[in-house]
Amino acid sequence: MAKVLIAETSYLVRKGLVGLLEQTDGITELKAAGHPDTIMLTLKEFSPDILLLNSAITLPVSHEKLVSKLPDRARIIYIINTPLPEDSPSHQISVFDSKSKLSEKISFHLQKYRDETPEKEDTEELTPREKLILKHVALGLTNKEIAAKLFISTHTVISHRKNITRKLDIKTVSGLTVYAILNGIIRMEDIG
Amino acid sequence: MHISPTMKMSDLVQSNFELLAVLQRLKIPFGFKDKSVQTVCREEGIDLDFFLNLSRWYDERDFFPGETLMNHPVKWLVKYLRSTHSCYIEYHIPRIENEIVRMESMDQSGGKNMQLMLKFFREYITEFTTHIELEEEKIFPYILDLEENLNKEHPDPDFLKKARGYTIKDFLDEHSDIEEKLVDLRNILLKYLAPPSDNCVFTNILIEIFRLGNDLNDHTILEENVLIPQVVKLEEQFHKKFPQG
Ligand SMILES: [Fe+2]
Ligand SMILES: [Fe+2]
């Protein structure tokens, strides 16, 4: 399931795409923005899996920077303000395209995105390693201290922590501590 | 809906009651009778355009607030943000805290889960209060002084000295994320904590946390994307008007 952001200046086109995508399967969340500042703001907070971007919009960042701000498997579809030839590439849609053409191209990317995303299990369990890292985080150790304790690099600790946060949807240390207590990974008495 | 100066204030609220928050934070009293938006604003001494732009943003969410909201005296926005702060501190936060306390007292499971939630939330309150105190006691006064001194023939010497060594950009760098912890609490309640019993209290805590989270999000947008860019512009004007040396 993908999060989609429509970045389009034209009010009419934006609303039209919102209407179309609301009827499309495979989208969990949909946002739309018109002003470059709003687009950048939404990119940062929303991190969309699929970005529909009008090619005429000048964003305050380079293409590489833009890509780096998106999640790893994110896809960009460009909205073009002129008609496109019949055999246009799938990552370009035109404001002149018919409904079926638009649906076809967008669904293609949604499908591709799904195919490339590893099947998420219903309950994403932490691995034993991650549980161990979580335990130390909850006890208040820094990344460096954890690295020294477990004989691994700080980099590895950070990457484990990212996975823990992604799986649990919990970002802060105190949030992780609460989770650890709730799940018996540490005891309430262990923390001050 | 198109929000126009001549529409009745009561119609405005009826078509989108979320706008009540805007009225409350601008301290517009109820009892409008059939008065129009512009009449109410005039009577309450509120800049009509500021009110319209703010309400339109809350209602439509289809434009970037900076485009329109930056063109008003900064003191309006500061006033608005200040009453939002008191709303959080005096109402929303204590309310959620009380509900969690109530939940804890109802918890028959013998476990300590709700106690843990309460501890977590109280930690959050401390963090939240520090965040707001910094803005109320240091940042906002600086902004108001800046705007006032910019309009003077000769700036106040004390302020001039301060302005030479400070920029609001420093604040932006250290402006902490006050939503993160709240989002964590929300996710824990939603995903990992079996409610002690199925009742309205638990659901209501969640609803209130969702509401507060959304509201804080808007608040941060106003601070980081309207207020601070506007103050950066004021600082530029100030240094141009009163060059060093
Ligand atoms: Fe604030
Ligand atoms: Fe703030």
Task: Describe this entry's structure for a reader.
- The complex is a heterodimer of chains A (192) and B (245).
- Chain A is α/β, with parallel strands linked by helices.
- Chain A has two domains: 2-117, Rossmann fold, CATH 3.40.50.2300; 123-190, Arc Repressor Mutant, subunit A (Orthogonal Bundle), CATH 1.10.10.10.
- Chain A has helices at 11-22, 36-46, 63-69, 99-116, 128-138, 143-150, 154-168, 173-182, and strands at 2-7, 27-33, 50-54, 75-80, 92-94.
- In chain A, helix 5 crosses helix 7 (154-168) and helix 6 (143-150) packs across helix 7.
- The two termini of chain A are 41 Å apart.
- In chain B, helix 6 runs antiparallel to helix 7 (113-150), helix 6 (74-106) runs antiparallel to helix 11 (200-241) and helix 7 (113-150) runs parallel beside helix 11 (200-241).
- Chain B has 245 residues and is an all-alpha fold.
- Chain B has eleven helices and no strands.
- Chain B has two domains: 9-63, no CATH class; 72-241, no CATH class.
- Chain B is globular.
- The complex binds fe (ii) ion (2 copies).
- Residues 81, 85, 132, 135, 219, 223 of chain B line the site of one fe (ii) ion.
